[in-house]
Structure formats: structure tokens, C-alpha cells
Write a structure and sequence with these properties.
binds ligand Z5A; five-stranded parallel sheet; alpha/beta; 55% helix; Rossmann fold
Length: 203
């Protein structure tokens, strides 16, 4: 079987990162080689971009924010995603292109056709499967607040996060075969069971 490219998406605090462990366990049981990666910040250059992008003191326009996200992504695809897929290794990425559509398109309200044109120009791979963790913004932000210091995105007003959530749901509606919505309000066991059910469908 060809190695799969799986992405995890959702508003912050939706439970994406927590779910990676369940996917890893399943792949290990099946003796499948995989890597975990993330955006922004998969490479050393990506980490520098991540510092800039998440720092609450960074003052950049929405367009610059989008271009930095895309620069990080192109480098991620070239150095990590494609080489691993070609080497028969599954790639599990915490965020990918849908994040730019949801955050820079939905949240920042940049023109979606411009974002899609840039993505087409960059010739990015399409994930085999995307799990979208969905829950009301208030619940998700309550979870992230417990971590203490808020980053540049977490500091945005609630309307921003609601626009991000709506953009994600629209993406899921437009791509029902690829994007599977997981109800993030469920308890951890229920969420993990849904994650496993969805990943099992790839076999
Ligand atoms: N961004 C962008 O704007 N454009 C782009 O193109 C890309 C990214 C690629 C990256 O932040 C930021 O960059 C992100 C969007 C923007 N915005 N923010 N902030 P990040 O990588 O630092 O953070 P994140 O991706 O948003 O992840 P997160 O905040 O760590 O959230 P999460 O991974 O979805 O959730 P979690 O860490 O798994 O869970 C959060 C907490 O909830 C944790 O304490 C868990 O124990 C708890 N949890 C999880 N599931 C449950 C359930 N089911 N019940 C109860 N509690 C739970």
C-alpha cells in the first residue's frame, strides 16, 4: 500500500495534538513506518518563522502572515513531506493547507481565490485524509487558557475564531471524501475512538 498523507485540522484547543498519539499507536500495531510533523515550524527555518508568527509582539499584515505560512509549507513539503512519502513512510501533519484557508481566508478575511491560486502555484500535495476536530470556540479557548501564556492567534477576539471555525466547516462540506469532522466536545475516549475508526478506513 502507498504511504498516506494525513492532516489534522481545527481551531486551537480542539484536540488535534492529543489525537496524534492514538494514530501513532494504530500505525505501530500495523507495523507501518510514519513520521509526525507540524505547521508552522517543521524545519529549523520553519521554527524561526513559527517564532515570528506566534509572537504576540509581531506586527505584520495579513498578507505577510499568509506568505510566511506558505513559505514554511513549501519548505515542509520539499524537505519532509514528499521525501518521506516517497520513502514509504506515512506522514501525519498537525495542520497543513486547510489552516491557511481557515485562518488567513476565514479569520483574516483574505481573498480565497488568491489563497487558492498561490496554493496551486506552489503545487502542494493534497492529503489522503484530513481529520477536522470541531467544537464551539468558547470550549476550545477555555482549554487553551489553562496553558497560561497566549500566542498571537490565541489573543484574537472570539469573532476571529468563529470565522475560522465556519471556514473549516465549509471546507469539510466542500470536500466530504477527504475531510472527516470529529465532534471535539466528546470525551477523550470517544474522540480517540472516532479517530481510530477514520484512520482504519484508509486500510
Ligand atoms: N496557523 C495559521 O494561521 N495558518 C496556517 O496556515 C497554519 C497555522 C499552518 C499554530 O499554533 C497557529 O498557527 C494556530 C493557527 C496558525 N493558531 N493558534 N494558536 P500551534 O501549533 O501552537 O497551536 P495549535 O495548532 O492551535 O494547537 P493547540 O493550541 O495545541 O491545540 P490542539 O492541538 O488542537 O489541542 P490539544 O493540544 O490536543 O488540546 C488542547 C487541550 O485540551 C489539552 O490540554 C488537552 O489535554 C485538552 N483536550 C483535548 N481533547 C480533549 C477532550 N476531548 N476533552 C477535554 N479536554 C481535551
Amino acid at each position: 500500500m502507498r504511504a498516506k498523507f494525513i492532516t489534522l485540522e481545527g481551531i486551537e484547543g480542539s484536540g488535534k495534538t492529543t489525537s496524534i498519539k492514538s494514530i501513532n499507536n494504530l500505525l505501530e500495531q500495523k507495523k507501518i513506518r510514519y513520521i509526525n510533523t507540524r505547521e508552522p515550524g517543521a524545519s529549523s527555518m520553519g521554527n524561526e518563522l513559527r517564532e515570528i508568527l506566534l509572537n504576540p509582539n509581531t506586527n505584520i499584515s495579513s498578507e505577510v502572515e499568509l506568505l510566511l505560512m506558505l513559505a514554511d509549507r513549501k519548505d515542509h513539503v520539499e524537505k519532509t513531506i514528499l521525501p518521506n512519502l516517497l520513502n514509504d513512510t506515512w506522514v501525519i501533519s498537525d495542520r497543513f493547507m486547510d489552516s491557511s484557508i481557515a485562518y488567513q481566508g476565514g479569520g483574516r478575511q483574505l481573498d480565497l481565490s488568491m489563497i487558492n491560486s498561490l496554493a496551486t502555484y506552489l503545487n502542494l500535495p493534497t492529503p489522503d485524509s484530513t481529520l477536522l476536530f470541531d467544537l464551539p470556540v468558547e470550549i476550545a479557548l477555555e482549554r487553551t487558557k489553562k496553558r497560561g501564556k497566549l500566542d498571537r492567534f490565541e489573543k484574537e477576539e472570539i469573532e476571529f475564531h468563529n470565522r475560522v471555525r465556519d471556514a473549516y466547516l465549509e471546507l469539510a462540506n466542500d470536500n466530504p471524501d477527504r475531510i472527516k469532522v470529529i465532534d471535539g466536545t466528546q470525551n477523550l475516549e470517544q474522540v480517540q475512538a472516532k479517530v481510530i475508526e477514520n484512520i482504519n478506513q484508509l486500510f
